[in-house]
Here is the input.
Amino acid sequence: MGIFEGVADTEWAERAAELRSQIDYHNQRYYLDDAPEITDAEFDALVAQLTSLELEHPDLATADSPTQRVWGEASARFAEVRHLTPMMSLDKTTSYEELLAWAKRMDRFISGEVAYTCELKIDGLAMSLLYEGGRLVRAATRGDGVVGEDVTPNVVTIGAIPRALPGRAPDRVEVRGEIYMPIPAFEELNRKQGESGARTFINPRNAAAGSLRQKDAAVTEGRELAFWAYQLGTVDGGPDFARHVETLDWMRESGFPVNPNIELVHGLEEVDSYCRRWLEQRHSLTYEIDGTVIKVDDLAQRRELGATSRAPRWAIAYKFPPEEKTTLLKGIMVSIGRTGKATPFAMLEPVNVGGAKVSLATLHNEDQVRVKDVRPGDTVVVRRAGDVIPEVRGPVLGLRPEGLAEWHFPEECPVCGEKLVRLDGESDTYCVNDQCPGQRVQRISHFASRSAMDIEHLGERTVSQFCRAGLLSDVADIYRLDYERVAGFEGWGDTSIANLQSAVEASKSRPLANLLVGLSIRHLGSTGSRILARHLRHLDRIMAASAEELAGVEGVGPIIGASVQRFFATPSNREVVARLRAAGLNFEGPAAPDVAQVLAGRSVVVTGTLDGWSREEAEEAIKARGGKSPGSVSKKTTAVVVGSDPGAAKLAKAAEVGVPVLDEAAFARLLETGELPGAGAAP
Ligand code: IVH
Here is the structure.
């Protein structure tokens, strides 16, 4: 009985009617108002429930059920246009078993080998472009699949869409594809919207839809929209295609952007591995995808297969698990980090999203809360994508209870009560009281963390306990912990104390760079710490350096320079350093390079795999001789060292700008003498 177990017979009809009206309502919010109240996945779940109910009780199925139609209607804002070939929807699967079932259903219609084209399912807006006599005459949204909206004036503003086709074009052809907004353009648009006080968009798909369905095409023109072509509709008086891949080639040759990640595969195992691969790699793309689309490649087989009333039998969408969900925003709190940074975060009604239960999500900073205008009590869209920390994307305005109060960033630190400070031109707000207990716990646990002094057994919870007990008030206290008192705490036996003692002892000899990381100096991360340790080679020299001297070190710059100088000029920090010195911590950086600085001021690019050096070793060797090893070739590059499998772009650029290309032997000579082949010491 599946998901409808426990529902009495008499209730099924009512449940079906309720689901239908819910689906109709959300269709209207999505297609007509551009203001969806639930995520696509939640919508799909409603449809899946109705479909399954209708399958179990065929007598309940009605001809006008949303499961039998393509969703969406043309809105009154744009003229209606009838597609020459209807734009159908796609059936969906979420598992390999369902893919197998789909293939099995096809066995009833076709026999023999089936080749599949695997495509990315672009998360945008379906578009049908009609060309007559080679000229773009009309662009229409999908609408209800039969009748769509005429958005031609908006679409002609999109540079990627050809206005005319080259060569002998078909008399009439419908090119279908997805209009989407690349992620960087979406982020930039939201930044601008925020700056001008306008509402931000929840995701790239909404931004694309909102940008396209504008009465004033000039607004669309100002938005960066892109297009991937993936399907032909009607083709009159044109080439006779036998396979889908041929249609893709034709579209590419005709000037349409065709996604480079489309693959022709044989067998469902290969289909499955394509789907898995892209599920894993989805975040490597600069646009959002919400699944893959699998299509039968042979067009004769497609004709045999035909379609149901809403979807072709020859294609199926493999939907990825959703990364966005809606949930209730119970409250907004502000946390204080180790540098005093005050970060607003959302307390949510727990929701499963992106493979984990999410009850907290970041709101980044004061401006983000303001431009998103999220308020406690709102239903919000939460996104958790890959390893990225969950974030609140925005409120569902249609569900906002009346009279919900705006949220304002607090003026005082929620931990110590001191005034919070936001410097001019900065987006972050800080608690500047360095005695703030909130900062203290974060600073000490960061000092002990793996990326800094790596003190095992001293995690945030222990630090917090020791701070509350008055055993720790700064990082130097770690080295004079009162272990007798620790022994009195619950859960601390002889062994755990001995383990902690030896971990603390071991940390005294960590490299200088780790100590610098551990001090929580604003703007100074692990790379900057390593550079300072290598160049100045002793903490005393770093402490004595002026902001200008520090900023002059390659890779440091004025912001870090000023921050480091300010940190060590602060008496309380100097006092902590004095106690760390007394405790016997290592202040020495790596030994001075004893190699001649034959590459000082010169830049050597390494590409491909070398036999004698790993990439890191080769770059270190260049830097140890005073040189730089950037990732790309320019006119200023001294030489390009080439191993096996080199980067084609780097080689081409080297040839274009006339930079010498060295093999491994010539590289060894360059490192030793600074000389390029066939030359004396280069200038
Ligand atoms: S083919 C009859 N290919 O997914 C087949 N659709 O849920 C027509 N979509 O309305 C669609 N990427 O907006 C196809 N590579 C792709 C696609 C794709 C995204 C969208 C399209 C369609 C929806 C179906």
User: Anything to note?
Assistant: The pocket of 2-(butylsulfanyl)adenosine is lined by residues 88-90, 119, 121-122, 126, 142, 178, 230-231, 293, 312, 315, 317 (CB under 6 Å). The chain has a mean pLDDT of 90. The first strand starts at residue 80 and ends at 82.
